[in-house]
Write a structure and sequence with these properties.
Layout lengths: L1 H91 L9 H24 L2 H6 L1 H15 L3 E6 L7 H22 L3 E8 L3 E8 L6 H6 L5 H13 L2 E6 L5 E8 L5
Parallel strand pairs: 1-2
Antiparallel strand pairs: 2-3, 3-5, 4-5
Helix pairs in contact: 1-2, 1-7, 4-5, 5-7
Bound molecules: adenosine-5'-triphosphate (ATP) and magnesium ion (MG).
Adenosine-5'-triphosphate binds next to helix 5 and helix 7.
C-alpha cells in the first residue's frame, strides 16, 4: 500500500517541479520579450526624437535663410540701386570734375566702395549665383571673393553636381563658406583646398588647409566650439549627410561632408 503512495508522492513532487520550472521559464521568456519590446520602443522613440530635432533644425535653418534672402534682396534692390542712382547724379554735376573738386572725387570714391560693400554683403546673404549657375559656380565665386580678401592661396576642384535642390546646394555652400572662413581666421595656413565631387553613390565636399590644426573632440567636450561648427553640424543633419573631421595639432585640417545618394530600386 505504501509503494503506490510513494509513487504518487514522487509524481506529485515531479509535477510540482515541472510546474515551477515551466513557470520560471515563462517568467524568463516574458522578461526577455518585455525587455526586447522596451528596447525596441526606446530605439523607436529615439529615432522619432532625432527625426523631430532634425526637422526642427531644418525649419529653423530654412527660416534663417529666408530672412537672409529677404535682407540680401532688399539691400541690393533698395540701398544698392539708390546708391547707384546717387552716383549717376553726382557724375552729372557740372562741377564733378575730380581735378577741380576733390570733395566730389572723395564722395565718388566712398560711394563706389559703399556700392561694392553693399553688393558683397547682399551676395553673402543671398548667393544668387547658386540659383543662376549652381553649386560649382557658387563655390568658384566664393573662392574668388575669399582669395581677394586674404593672402591664402585657394584652390578649387568642383564637379557640376546634379540632384540637389536649392536648400541643399545652399547648405553645402554655407558649409564651404564657414570652413574656409575658419581656415582663414584660425589655421594660419598658406593653402586651402576645396573639392566638390559626385559619384554614383554620394556627393562630397571637402575643405582642407595646411594650418596648425585643432582637437575637435576636446573642443566640443569643453563646449568651445563656436556657432560656426555648430551650424555646420546642423546643416549636415538637415542634409542627412555624414561628416568627418581630420585635424590634429601641426597637421592641418581636412573636413569632409558626404551626402549619400539614395538609390531608387
Ligand atoms: N581650420 C581650423 N584650423 C584651426 N583651428 C580651427 C579651424 N577651424 C576651427 N578651428 C577651431 O575651432 C574653434 C571653433 O570654430 P567655430 O567655427 O565653431 O567658431 P569660431 O570660428 O571661433 O566662431 P564663429 O562662431 O564666428 O564661427 C575655433 O575657435 C578654432 O579654435
Ligand atoms: Mg567659425
Amino acid at each position: 500500500m505504501d509503494k503506490p503512495k510513494e509513487i504518487e508522492l514522487k509524481y506529485m513532487v515531479f509535477g510540482c517541479i515541472m510546474v515551477i520550472l515551466l513557470l520560471a521559464i515563462s517568467i524568463v521568456i516574458f522578461f526577455i520579450v518585455y525587455q526586447k519590446r522596451l528596447l525596441a520602443q526606446q530605439i523607436k522613440l529615439q529615432s522619432v526624437q532625432h527625426e523631430y530635432q532634425r526637422e526642427l533644425l531644418s525649419s529653423s535653418i530654412a527660416a534663417q535663410e529666408k530672412e537672409r534672402v529677404r535682407i540680401g534682396q532688399d539691400l541690393h534692390d533698395e540701398i544698392g540701386s539708390s546708391l547707384s542712382t546717387i552716383k549717376l547724379l553726382i557724375n552729372q554735376l557740372h562741377y564733378a570734375d575730380p581735378e577741380k573738386n576733390p570733395v566730389i572725387a572723395n564722395i565718388r570714391e566712398i560711394l563706389s566702395n559703399t556700392i561694392q560693400d553693399v553688393k558683397n554683403i547682399s551676395l553673402n546673404l543671398y548667393p544668387s549665383v547658386l540659383t543662376k549657375f549652381g553649386l560649382a559656380e557658387g563655390l568658384q565665386y566664393l573662392v574668388t571673393v575669399l582669395a581677394q580678401a586674404s593672402p591664402i592661396i585657394f584652390s578649387l576642384e568642383a564637379d557640376d553636381v546634379t540632384g540637389l535642390n536649392y536648400s541643399e546646394e545652399l547648405a553645402f555652400y554655407r558649409i564651404a563658406q564657414e570652413l574656409s572662413n575658419n581656415s582663414i581666421k584660425h589655421s594660419g595656413a598658406t593653402n586651402v583646398s576645396i573639392k566638390l565631387s559626385q559619384s554614383t553613390t554620394f556627393i562630397e565636399l571637402s575643405v582642407s588647409d595646411n594650418g596648425q590644426g585643432f582637437n575637435y573632440p576636446e573642443l566640443k567636450g569643453n563646449g568651445q566650439n563656436g556657432i560656426g561648427l555648430k551650424s555646420i553640424e546642423a546643416r549636415k543633419e538637415m542634409l542627412k549627410a555624414e561628416m568627418r573631421i581630420d585635424s590634429s595639432a601641426g597637421n592641418g585640417t581636412c573636413i569632409v561632408v558626404r551626402l549619400p545618394l539614395l538609390k531608387t530600386l
